[in-house]
Amino acid sequence: MLKDKVCIVTGAASGIGLAIAEMFAAEQAKVVMVDINEAQLKAHCERLGSEYVVADLSKREDCKNVVDVTARLFEKVDILVNVAGIQTVSPIEDFPEDKWDFMINLMLTAPFLLTRYSWPFMKAQKWGRVINLNSIHGLVASEFKSAYVSAKHGLSGLTKTTALEGGPFGITVNSICPSYVQTPLVDKQIAAQAATHGISEEEVVSKIMLQKAAVKKLLQPNEVASVVKFLCTDEASMITGSTMTIDGGWTAA
Ligand SMILES: NC(=O)c1ccc[n+]([C@@H]2O[C@H](COP(=O)([O-])OP(=O)(O)OC[C@H]3O[C@@H](n4cnc5c(N)ncnc54)[C@H](O)[C@@H]3O)[C@@H](O)[C@H]2O)c1
């Protein structure tokens, strides 16, 4: 079903984006992997036989270039998965202002631009899928994460608005809201917190990170990729505008 679909995946050099790119490659889709980390991106693209674009997605011209290159290569865009993101933790009075700008550009403006530039291709063929890698922080907040939570809440709004606009053209737009996913980023946080609190890494996961979740385990990147795969099928054509949680019950309480 995904064979030969042209898919752009951002943040594809690591973690969740990489798992999504691997899923698409296994389905024989035509994958364009996008990331700022050139060395890691190239290595994975060689392994998967994918195309790649090195881009700093906090920059408007780089976002434009991603879709231009994809269109030159394949003359269309079928699926866009916005994944690239970073985290900064700081109290509001110390929150670095340049970090705020960067994070809003990367995690909200880039998905807007990439959707805008991909849209005409999807609209013309009356089929498209946009999937935004959101977070439970697109639904609820945690202290000290003002830019992250604001960008992700904005992404929920962008998802809903574009879902309404895409309906008549067979374009669905959804966001996926995971709790903690075991990626290199999270592994580093676990080790750091274990050292800070003087407790085991298992206790950091169950007692601190997953305190609010009913199921006390970390998600794996391939579990997120499986949801992306389903959202790309024709069976999922009625799922649009959703903020789909995969959070072990975190936001159910
Ligand atoms: N890991 C989690 O627990 C978790 C939970 C919920 C949501 N998410 C979301 O999933 C997404 C991916 O997270 P991850 O854990 O896989 O992180 P990761 O650090 O493993 O991967 C993020 C990728 O984004 C790339 N990137 C960073 N800045 C960039 C820029 N300016 N331009 C282009 N690429 C850039 C990085 O190089 C990296 O390859 C993020 O949007 C994050 O908010 C992650």
Explain what this protein looks like in three dimensions.
It is a single chain. The chain has 8 helices and 7 strands, in the order βαβαβαβαβαβαααβ. It has helices at 15-26, 38-48, 60-74, 97-125, 146-166, 184-197, 201-209, 221-231, and strands at 6-10, 30-35, 51-54, 79-82, 128-133, 171-178, 243-246. The mean pLDDT is 96. Helix 1 packs across helix 8 and helix 3 runs parallel beside helix 4. The protein folds into 2 domains: 6-181 and 219-252, NAD(P)-binding Rossmann-like Domain (Rossmann fold); 182-218, no CATH class. With 253 residues, the chain is of the alpha/beta class. The chain has a 7-stranded parallel beta sheet with strand order 3-2-1-4-5-6-7, with helices on both faces. The protein binds nicotinamide-adenine-dinucleotide (NAD). Nicotinamide-adenine-dinucleotide (NAD) binds at residues 11, 13-17, 35-37, 55-58, 83-86, 106, 133, 135, 178, 180-181, 183-186.
Estimated structural class: alpha/beta
Overall 3D form: globular
In round numbers, the mean pLDDT is 96
Which percent bin holds the helix content?
Answer: 40-55%
Q: Can you tell me the CATH topology of the largest domain? A: Rossmann fold
Q: Quickly count the helices.
A: 8
**What is the CATH C-level name of the largest domain?**
Alpha Beta
Order of helices and strands: EHEHEHEHEHEHHHE
Biggest sheet strand order reads 3-2-1-4-5-6-7
What would CATH call the homologous superfamily of the largest domain? Answer: NAD(P)-binding Rossmann-like Domain
Name the beta content range.
5-15%
Q: End-to-end distance, in Å?
A: 37 Å
Bound molecules: nicotinamide-adenine-dinucleotide
Which regions have little confidence, pLDDT < 50, spanning 5+ residues?
A: none
Q: Outline the biggest β-sheet.
A: 7 strands, parallel
Q: What radius of gyration results from the CA coordinates?
A: 18 Å
Overall structural domain count: 2
- Using DSSP, what is the number of strands? 7
Q: Label the CATH architecture of the largest domain.
A: 3-Layer(aba) Sandwich
